[in-house]
Amino acid sequence: MSPLKRPTIADIAAAAGVSKGAVSYALNGKAGVSAQTRERILEIAARMGWHPSSAARALSDGRSGAIGLVVDRPAWVLGIEPFFMQFISGVEAGLAATGTALLLQVTEDAGAEEAAYRRWWGERRVDGVLLVDLRDDDPRIALLSELGLPAVVVGHAAGAAGVPSVWIDDGAAVRETLAYLVAMGHRRIARVAGPAHFVHTRERGEVFDACAAELGLPGVDCVHTDYSGEDGARATRRLLSGPARPTAIVFDNDVMTVAALSVTQEMGVSVPGELSLIAWDDSELCRLVHPALTAVSRRVPEHGRSAAAALLSLLDGAEVPDIQLDPPVLVPRGSTAPAPR
Amino acid sequence: MSPLKRPTIADIAAAAGVSKGAVSYALNGKAGVSAQTRERILEIAARMGWHPSSAARALSDGRSGAIGLVVDRPAWVLGIEPFFMQFISGVEAGLAATGTALLLQVTEDAGAEEAAYRRWWGERRVDGVLLVDLRDDDPRIALLSELGLPAVVVGHAAGAAGVPSVWIDDGAAVRETLAYLVAMGHRRIARVAGPAHFVHTRERGEVFDACAAELGLPGVDCVHTDYSGEDGARATRRLLSGPARPTAIVFDNDVMTVAALSVTQEMGVSVPGELSLIAWDDSELCRLVHPALTAVSRRVPEHGRSAAAALLSLLDGAEVPDIQLDPPVLVPRGSTAPAPR
DNA sequence: CCCGGGCGCTCAACCGGTTCAGCCGCCGAT
DNA sequence: ATCGGCGGCTGAACCGGTTGAGCGCCCGGG
Question: Could you please report the per-residue DSSP string of A72-136?
Answer without folding.
Answer: -S-HHHHHH-HHHHHHHHHHHHHHHTTT-EEEEEE-SSHHHHHHHHHHHHHTT--SEEEE-S-BT
